[in-house]
Amino acid sequence: MPFPFAYICDLLQGLEDNQHAQTGQKTDASLIQAWFRSHRAELARDDHDPAALLSALLPEKRTDRVYSIREKKLQIIIGRALILGISRKKELERWAVSGSGVDLADCVYGILCETPNPQFSDDAGVTIEEIDGVLHGIASECRYSSLAVRSKPSGTRFADTELALGDLHKRLSARDAKWLTRLILKNYEPIVLDPSTVYSSYHPYLSTILKVQDDFAVAGRIIVRQRRERTVTGRADITEFLKPALGVKVGRQTWIKGRSIKHCLDMSRGRMSCEEKVDGEYCQIHIGLSKESKCIQIFSKSGKDSTDDRIALHDSIRRSLQLGQPTCPLKSGCILEGELVVFSDKDAKILDFHKIRKHVSRSGSFLGTDQDSQRHPWEHLMIIYYDLLMVDGESLLGVRHSGRFKRLKDLVTLVPGRSALVKQELIDCSSRSAASDLRRAFAKCITAHGEGLVLKPDDPYFTFGARTKPYSSCAIKLKKEYIGHFGDIGDVAVVGARYDPAKARTYSIPNLKWTHFYVACLENKDEVVRFQKTPRFIVTNVVELNTSQMAVFVKFVNPQSVAPSENKSISIRVEPGVDNGKTPSAIFPAPPVFDLRCFSFDKVGNTGFWSPRFPVVNKIHCDRTYRDALSFTELQDMASKEREMPPPEDSQELLGWIAALEAADPKGVAVDHSSQVTVASTLIATTPSTQSTDSGQAGSSASSHLQTSPTPVRGRAGDPPTPPRSSIVQAGHEPRTNNFPGAQDTSKRQKRPPESSDLEHKGKTKVRKFQDERRPTVGDWLSQSMSEIQGTPHNEREPLSNVRISSSRRNNLPSSTAPRLTSTTSMYQLGWGNARLGAPERVQSSLPVSLLFQGLLAPHLSITSSTVTGATNVRDSNGDHDNMSPEGPSTSCGKCRFLDSCKLSKCSFLLSPCIANFPWVTEDLLVCHGVADIVLDYKKLTTAQPSCGTTPATVERIREKRSAKRKIILVESRRKSPTAAFMKLVTEAKDKWPSNDREYFEVYDWRILEALRYEEAKCSRNGKIRGACVSTTTTKDIEKKFRLGLV
């Protein structure tokens, strides 16, 4: 039995009336469910067409149908059908007037209320099946419709279908004609029907069916067949009854936006696949070997069949799956998911997103390529696979992600430049290092200018059970513009606006004149600022405001506007591709200013310049003028810099993003704050294998703040014994423990009570139970208040300037008098040189140990010191020199003894006082790693020069790479109090630096040098291959073990 369209209009009008109701409002879901209950008898009939009903309720879901009919054309069709005169035509055109507050449907409603159509009986009424047939006929004549729609023509000419469309308006009431008009335009706004509510109200298994076969017609046939055969009695049976079918698009997983690292971890559990989000076009690839030459079918994200448009990709798919070859692993076919990108053989990399439009047509036309370069022979399409949904008739929708990815690896043949698998990293969300791992992976993605990350739980593709866990089978998108204000680009001018009647209805603001705003940048900013020339603007984007922003703009900004023909104040250039050929209807002579953020930059078709991609308005400025906004040159420079080669993984930019991501967690506290708190950021550190005890610290109460580690030092023939642990002793005095600020007798100090965040809460909030025994982190040291560190009374002692370092020397050079340093220059002002390399087993340094910390302690202290090993000339306070030359052959500066690929040789190191005078570290470990840069003065980093083979060109290269150089602080984590005081001083010194000069230091226990030395030596012994290196996984594991934080 045909279903009357009037019933659909009852629901839509009820929802609209409910929105305007002053009291007694009901939820949309309750109204939808009540409507379906009232028509259950009609919907349960076997001759009912579910596809027609769903197409009428959710017209925006029919992306396969394109009518090529918009407001202006539909206005002409309706005017002709209703035979309107001049005055009534003007009433029908009122929707285009800015500020009218009505759309075309409202105008049709007003006209038919004044002169209603003749009344028809129920039998002659318009049905949804009739409307669906007319719309299908219109879509079948449009070349932009899908192949399935165009292959089933209605048998009538397009002119006849237009007449049929007008005839429908003549047979409908004013109310029904209003909703038919919006149905044709595929826009019921401000009424929005929730698809999940509609599906569940219509049939309990409809949402499940559409997940597997995302097609209204196919889903409708399945429901009708199920209703007739009565074979399905429960949702579990559906999973057995329904499987993916070749030629029918499989629905996509639920995608959620991650708003912070904490938000992502809250939605995740167990093992999670962290994948690189490829900046390309989605492809769902169906392979049916029975079709032979036409065995490939490709669906786009919208559900359209884009097989012909992406014909350039077919060769890559054939080669990756070995189609037509005896070695093809397929028997009948498969369904895969992937991203389409453009690869350049010349540059050996994936090109930017805007390059795709040169290689992919849209229904046979290449759109937006007027200002693009021609296709080059070295450019071709590439497919990056990331999931497998079906293979040889076997559905993998119920298989876990890890299992599907393993099957995908076995199926796909990787062809360089043609096919690849998505890069992924496994993260255990139950691990203490989960937040740190995810944060670092995301920071690497940002610094590499990637689109973002996709986090996928190890769950089935779809979960069909009645009881599902929250966020089960949901993929999480993590992009920087989703978090805080990471995507900020700056202020832009708003030079004009236009009015969209359908969009204006969603704001519910009376007399609204603008809905879309044209943002632009000054092309001649210098001329305007200096010589008051006429401003010339280049429009880059069109943006919209949310409801609250629009209310603010109308109330507090509301700029004066003129028609484009009357504009003489500013010059505006709008490229055809900016707004699909549309132009502003109003110009602002005094442009207001918006603050924008975006995902990245892109070259929109038919523009020829970089513009913000997916721009969003952050705020509206009422106190700034267009002269304060970005210039066009600045915007292009910003975009060019964004597309530059990414920095190395250990760059300062990476560390800066890690710190910013930590601060972006709720309330500025990182999710892993309970296990590690740092000064500028918080990073998880895994528990080391060795732990120190309080008794061990108590036993060393006679040591000083430069106490060396108890780790034994390897002896060599002719070497003097290692200096005693108490390396600073005043003449005629017994050694004391309180020689360094913050040091105290740990044997008398009570243990700090455990923090509540380290315990497992028994209440509703479940927190992972961490191990109690772990290496103290930077946060542990800094969490101690200064009163705790300095509260212990200090015994009387000599001024620190009179304290000498009696460092035994491991070489046989004659000892010399150490220079006395009395300068009170602060760390910010102090410049100093680097360590020099001497014999392979020795380090020769021009840097006195105390000079390393002169900047931290100055201007309060004056230090006297000796050199670490005493190598080069050092001028003392009296102008004398230590003339000592190194013995033995010299090595090349910055070269590791074991591997040329050692990353430590390119790092800058700062040693804590506890290990600065420890020969095993300074003379053995650092030397074997080729470390030649021990830098303390952060401000004067660019003045640091290698001491061997130095040239002006070398110095210039060091200055250029300053921000990309990795900075590391090595400490003795077992000595908590002295290390805490040292880190306090480092933090206080850093806080005084200008914000644009601040950089980040990674803090490690010094034993990381031993671990890396062992692995490099093993790799060198086993490999003997040029360019050999320690595996990335091994390096990361070692760093996790000894990492203490970030300052």
Task: Name the features.
OB fold (Dihydrolipoamide Acetyltransferase, E2P), 7-stranded mixed beta sheet, DNA ligase i, domain 1, globular, ATP-binding, DNA_ligase_N_sf, alpha+beta, 1047 residues
Secondary structure elements and pairings:
Layout: H1 5-20, H2 28-38, H3 40-43, H4 50-57, H5 71-82, H6 86-92, H7 104-114, H8 128-140, H9 147-150, H10 158-170, H11 174-184, H12 195-202, H13 206-212, H14 216-229, H15 235-241, E1 254-257, H16 261-266, E2 271-276, E3 281-288, E4 296-299, H17 314-321, E5 333-344, E6 349-350, E7 379-391, E8 394-395, H18 401-411, E9 419-421, E10 424-428, H19 434-447, E11 453-457, E12 474-478, E13 488-498, H20 501-507, E14 516-522, H21 525-531, E15 536-543, H22 547-557, E16 571-573, E17 586-587, E18 593-597, E19 600-602, E20 611-613, E21 616-621, H23 632-642, H24 652-663, H25 694-698, H26 778-783, H27 786-790, E22 835-837, E23 843-845, H28 849-857, E24 908-911, H29 919-928, H30 952-960, E25 967-971, H31 976-991, E26 1002-1005, H32 1008-1023, H33 1032-1042, E27 1043-1046
Parallel strand pairs: 1-12, 7-9, 15-16, 24-25, 25-26
Antiparallel strand pairs: 2-10, 2-11, 3-4, 3-5, 5-6, 5-7, 7-8, 11-12, 13-14, 13-17, 13-18, 14-15, 18-21, 19-20, 22-23, 26-27
Helix pairs in contact: 1-2, 2-12, 4-8, 4-14, 5-10, 7-11, 8-10, 19-24, 32-33
Biased composition (Basic and acidic residues): 746-762
GO biological process, one term: double-strand break repair via nonhomologous end joining
Family: Belongs to the ATP-dependent DNA ligase family.
